[in-house]
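Worked example 2:
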Amino acid sequence: MRSLPRISLTTHGLVEFVAGLALTVAALVLDLGGAGTVLVFASGVSVAGIGLGAADALPLHAHQTLDHTLVIALAAGAVALAAADGGAAAVILLATAGTVLVLEASTRWTRPMARKASPATR
């Protein structure tokens, strides 16, 4: 069985950042109710913030842990919103949790080696 190619950590961060911005805009544009708007907006800011720290700022293990925690928080928020008749916001949060989970599973969790300066370029 052939596996899909893994994406780089930079691409992972870019996808998270764009998804976070999309969530933030969705919270402002769509009519999600009071709780739905707050949860979707907060989730968008969180996802975008984690995406910004993906490339170099966070250790790899910390980023993986934040991704897992984010999936759990998004799914719990979706369940809470579904129980409170916030169907549209619940679907958005659950879809985002699934996207982050697939993104986390398809990422190559390595950083490229730093290049050493050659003697000719010093």
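The CA atoms of residues 19 and 57 lie 19 Å apart. The mean pLDDT is 86.
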